[in-house]
Amino acid sequence: MDRYYERCARFAVRMLGSRDDAEDALQQTFLRAYRSLGKYQERDRFSAWLYRILVNQCRSAASRRSQRERVFVREEAALLNAADRRQGWAGEDEELVQRILAELDPLLREAFVLKYIDELSYEEMSAATGVGVSALKMRVKRACDRLRARWEHIKDD
Amino acid sequence: MTDEFDSLDPNVRWIVTEARRPVPVDAAARARVIDAIKAEPVPSRGLGLVTWLSEPHRLALPPFATAALAAGLVGIGVLGGLAINRDGRSAAGQLPAVAVGQPQLPDSLSPRAVKFVLIAPQATNVSLVGDFNGWDSGATPMKTSGGTWTVFVPLHPGLHTYSFVVDGTHFVSDPTAPIAPDDGFGHRSSVVLVRKPSL
Question: CATH code at A107?
Answer without folding.
Answer: 1.10.10.10
